[in-house]
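Sat 14:20. Reprocessing the chain from the morning session after the first attempt stalled halfway. Input below, unchanged.
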Amino acid sequence: MQVRSAGEALFIACEMEKRAIRLYERALAIFADSSCREAVRAILTDERHHLARFSEMGGETPGFERARLLSAQATSMLFSGGLMEAQRKGAFESVLRLYQYAADEERNAAARYGEFADQLEGAASAAFRQIELEETGHLMKLNEMIRALSGQTEGGAEE
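Finished this time. Tokens:
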């Protein structure tokens, strides 16, 4: 997908983050007793932070005129199957599976934001590069947690 302006890229980024937020908010409501509850909350906090940054940047940037088209395109980029797809993939079976699912989505987001940074120039490119680095940092953090949990059984003892 080729974006034409920083405004378009920011709009898509906002839509991607909104989908992530909706998914994790619904997960909190549906899986209220899950062992994943605190992990979901932590991930949700990160996603809300991203949306706030992108929204702030977008409010200062022209290019939202193609909102309907961009919104349709954003739905296929991050959390495309929604909560039911996450459930089908086993994301809420355990904290480990949640972190694995979230890591895959963070990897996708980092790649998309990197593409935006490559396509844009100036401040918009730098902003997307920074967000790409943040997403990569989140991915690294998730991978560390995955490694730590992979060395433990469900009861918390080392395997």
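The CA atoms of residues 6 and 124 lie 6 Å apart.
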